[in-house]
Specification:
Layout (H helix, E strand, L loop, with lengths): L1 E5 L8 E6 L7 E4 L4 H12 L2 E2 L2 E7 L5 E6 L3 E2 L3 H10 L1 E3 L7 E3 L9 E3 L7
């Protein structure tokens, strides 16, 4: 198995190549990383891929129609689409404080969805 991905740990964005170690197939070899964080990202991306999500929820009584939100932690990749559907269909009303929990413990992951900015009521 060979996987090619772009590292997302820092702004450098190394092009990683991850492959099984021929001597020990349960181990992986990561090439193209310029730091250990890139190596760790590559291994994690193969073993248990996950994402921090950013999106927007519907906003009522505010100066804009949608409120930017983000997750407080990582979401397993297989739950990303389902989480995004929940986020997109969620509606909140202004005022909202930055960091305010919008969705608590989304899909039982232990991760909250919070407001990414403060919005005053109009």
């Amino acid at each position: 198995m060979i996987m090619e991905i772009k590292c997302k740990v820092c702004p450098v964005g190394c092009n990683l190549v991850i492959k099984n170690d021929d001597k020990n197939p349960s181990n992986y070899i990561v090439e193209g990383n310029r730091c250990n964080r890139g190596w760790e990202f590559g291994i994690k991306e193969v073993k248990e891929p996950s994402r921090v999500l950013t999106s927007r929820v519907l906003l009522e009584n505010g100066p804009m129609g949608r409120l930017p939100v983000k997750t407080t932690g990582i979401i397993p990749k297989e739950l990303v689409d389902e989480c995004m559907e929940i986020i997109k269909s969620t509606k909140v009303s202004a005022p909202v404080e930055r960091g305010q929990i919008i969705i608590k413990n989304i899909l039982g992951t232990g991760v909250d969805v919070v407001a990414a900015r403060k919005v005053n009521k109009i």
